[in-house]
Amino acid sequence: MPREYRTIQEVSGPLMLVRGVSGVTYDELGEIELENGETRRCKVLEIDGGNALVQLFEPSTGINLDTSKVRFLGRPMELGVSSDMLGRVFDGLGRPIDGGPEILPDERRDINGLPMNPAARAYPEEFIETGISAIDGLNTLVRGQKLPIFSASGLPHSQLAAQIARQAKVRGTDEPFAVVFAAMGITFEEAHFFQQSFTESGAIDRTVLFVNLANDPAVERIATPRMALTAAEYLAFEKNMHVLVIMTDITNYADALREISAARKEVPGRRGYPGYMYTDLASIYERAGRQKGRKGSITMIPILTMPEDDKTHPIPDLTGYITEGQIILSRELYQKGIQPPIDVLPSLSRLKDKGIGEGKTRADHANTMNQLFAAYARGKNAKELMIILGEAALTDIDKLYAKFADEFEEKYVNQGYNTDRSIEETLDLGWDLLRILPRTELKRIKEEFLDEYYEKKS
């Protein structure tokens, strides 16, 4: 039976100091019993001899230092996992909030799982179709990859996240596919949007939602992505499912980390974030991947908003080091009405070459991808030159490239949030755009593909 302590020394905001404890360990769960019998939960943040510093999950209002009791439960935070989780909505601590019954778990798992052993990893190389041309055609997502989306305040990353969750699929296989969606620090309106979007499209049946609202405690926000990954690991490696984990918003998670660090009076690092934020983010991101000898996989799309649109801010900076590329949303494209406003030139998927080509997408994919990148980059340069010197300063071929850039944004990138394009439709659309340019300009495409696709009229 857990030992009770009446030695609460101090309560300061979300933190509480308990003296004279023994056998208590880091990250252990505890319960605080108030004088009126009400119980609140807490988690051990730090142990110093017989002193335990704990983080409260609920407000500290009403805790009396003399009469309140603390019990430590001898276990870390756990999640009861089962395949019955599919189609359900939970809060950030894994409790159902959709009005349904409690989950009867097959087992209970410590949410602080371990990053995947590099020696046990299988190389990601299977194409995941999101139905979004700017991703599938140019920055391809591969099964087992970690591909973040870098957004900014006011940009429609929520709509993009919901679209990916609804449309994503593994081609050429009938193996089960699931989505685990973790929302951290979002508003009630955003939470309602996600639930409604998944329910209306039917995607809720293959989705597990963990929702942490903006007014929930910071310590719950720290637990939410780990809850989601624990559920994903169970579905992937016990139930042999392909699992796509989408997390929004990592910036809210990092801010909660900073809040707790400041409350503990730790020495701050860059922009006030704790010096261990890189390690903390890596402990989340590195739980994604494929394992040798296992059918299932975890593919991760973390979404973050860059404060002040700054790519060098610690959160996108550290995320970029750990993950395999980034999809960047552009405020300029958003103001033009492009949906989704994906800026393809600075975006990058480091594993895209592994998931495309014959037998995976189509033999011409790599060539057309490189040519579209090159043509769009030259078209953007031509448009900038036109602004400075006027259209009369451009050559006829530069005018064609400028036209290509406009058409590319309007037809290829701008597909809306309800259009699900197959990879064949995306590649054919790319060829339609490349026909704006003379065949002699398409120097990055093999002659055999030009013969087959360029001459074929749509």
TrEMBL record:
<keyword id="KW-0375">Hydrogen ion transport</keyword>
<dbReference type="GO" id="GO:0005524">
    <property type="term" value="F:ATP binding"/>
</dbReference>
<dbReference type="GO" id="GO:0042777">
    <property type="term" value="P:proton motive force-driven plasma membrane ATP synthesis"/>
</dbReference>
<dbReference type="InterPro" id="IPR000194">
    <property type="entry name" value="ATPase_F1/V1/A1_a/bsu_nucl-bd"/>
</dbReference>
<feature type="domain" description="ATPase F1/V1/A1 complex alpha/beta subunit N-terminal">
    <location>
        <begin position="8"/>
        <end position="74"/>
    </location>
</feature>
<comment type="similarity">
    <text>Belongs to the ATPase alpha/beta chains family.</text>
</comment>
<dbReference type="InterPro" id="IPR020003">
    <property type="entry name" value="ATPase_a/bsu_AS"/>
</dbReference>
<feature type="domain" description="ATP synthase A/B type C-terminal">
    <location>
        <begin position="354"/>
        <end position="454"/>
    </location>
</feature>
<comment type="function">
    <text>Produces ATP from ADP in the presence of a proton gradient across the membrane. The V-type beta chain is a regulatory subunit.</text>
</comment>
<dbReference type="GO" id="GO:0046933">
    <property type="term" value="F:proton-transporting ATP synthase activity, rotational mechanism"/>
</dbReference>
<dbReference type="Pfam" id="PF00006">
    <property type="entry name" value="ATP-synt_ab"/>
</dbReference>
<dbReference type="InterPro" id="IPR004100">
    <property type="entry name" value="ATPase_F1/V1/A1_a/bsu_N"/>
</dbReference>
<protein>
    <recommendedName>
        <fullName>V-type ATP synthase beta chain</fullName>
    </recommendedName>
</protein>
<dbReference type="InterPro" id="IPR022879">
    <property type="entry name" value="V-ATPase_su_B/beta"/>
</dbReference>
<keyword id="KW-0813">Transport</keyword>
<dbReference type="Pfam" id="PF22919">
    <property type="entry name" value="ATP-synt_VA_C"/>
</dbReference>
<dbReference type="InterPro" id="IPR027417">
    <property type="entry name" value="P-loop_NTPase"/>
</dbReference>
<feature type="domain" description="ATPase F1/V1/A1 complex alpha/beta subunit nucleotide-binding">
    <location>
        <begin position="131"/>
        <end position="349"/>
    </location>
</feature>
<dbReference type="InterPro" id="IPR055190">
    <property type="entry name" value="ATP-synt_VA_C"/>
</dbReference>
<keyword id="KW-0406">Ion transport</keyword>
<keyword id="KW-0066">ATP synthesis</keyword>
<dbReference type="Pfam" id="PF02874">
    <property type="entry name" value="ATP-synt_ab_N"/>
</dbReference>
